[in-house]
Design a protein that fits this description.
The chain is mainly α. It is about 40% helix and about 5% strand. The protein folds into 2 domains: about 30 residues, no CATH class; about 50 residues, no CATH class. The chain is globular and about 55 Å long.
């Protein structure tokens, strides 16, 4: 119908899912440099990058992290913590 509008774009989940958006931005950082894509905070995809997160937590103790589930919306499931055990409880 000519009066209808589409509210979803093909493959838009690459931007709305936090884990997929991070992968896309990381590829662009490699391709075009960090100076053009430095608007995201350091991100870890769990459980695949748990070792990297643990290393970062050991280097900078006391830093607060925001853990967001990749498949939730509207703030559901978000945890603010500085302890890995709290993040593991959400996985």
């Amino acid at each position: 119908m000519p009066y209808q509008k589409v509210n979803h774009f093909p493959n838009s989940f690459h931007l709305t899912r936090k884990d997929l958006m991070n992968k896309c931005v990381s590829k662009m950082q490699i391709r075009h440099g960090m100076s053009h894509f430095n608007f995201l905070p350091k991100t870890f995809i769990l459980p695949q990058e748990t070792d990297l997160l643990l290393d970062e937590m050991n280097k900078t103790p006391g830093i607060t992290y925001i853990a967001k589930p990749h498949n939730r919306s509207q703030g559901k499931g978000i945890t603010v913590t500085n302890q890995m055990s709290t993040i593991y409880a959400k996985l």
